[in-house]
Amino acid sequence: MRILLVEDDPDLSRQLKLALTDAGYAVDHAPDGEEAQFLGETEPYDAIILDLGLPKVDGVSVLERWRRENMATPVLILTARGAWSEKVAGFDAGADDYLTKPFHTEELLARLRALLRRSAGHATPNLSCGGLRLDPRAARASVNGEPLRLTSLEYRLLHYLMMHQGRVISRTELVEHLYDQDFDRDSNTIEVFIGRVRKKIGADRIETVRGLGYRLICPEDEMGAETAGT
């Protein structure tokens, strides 16, 4: 999952980028409204964290333009304490949620998970596909109760596939949502990571749809066993 962090405070930006990366996200950073506006219009993000008090172009104006361009990416806005009018303006501009500074990083991560979950149509905090489980809160996954040892990129790949299970996802889409802007992207490496994840979760769970991409599927026998056990 790929996140755009828009924050002009250098210390807070470093802190949040580290926390987001540790939580399993690919993170791009924009220090002002002008760059944020450009990145939001040209790069595909799963969610955006947007400070409203930005240099060059304020956050509300950036968000209004994004929404005029029909950009549906969920946006979490950051506002100054006591600035209730900023919150109202942010929601009216198209924000999905907000946090007031100062805040706990854990709360930001929880709100971000909720935004991503709702945008993908998931009601529960954990993701499941038969015996495959993924807990975004702990950035961990398991198969039939056995923990999986995943690298950061393997985890991002599995997370994205599970968020969109049943849908065919192209290699290009995976590249755009697994790597940050500065990563040396190569769509051929996706095949390598698909192969590694298949070995860890079972080859029959990720289907190759020739000429189109990949699809995460839930084996019917596991689904039946899971239903019977509930």
From TrEMBL:
DNA-binding region per UniProt: 124-218
Modified residues (4-aspartylphosphate): 51
Domain OmpR/PhoB-type, chain residue ranges per copy: 124-218
Entry keyword Transcription regulation: yes
Domain of life of the native organism: Bacteria
Residue ranges occupied by any Response regulatory domain in the UniProt entry: 2-116
PANTHER family recorded: REGULATOR OF RPOS, RESPONSE REGULATOR PROTEIN CARR
Protein name (database record): Response regulator(With CheY-like receiver domain and winged-helix DNA-binding domain)
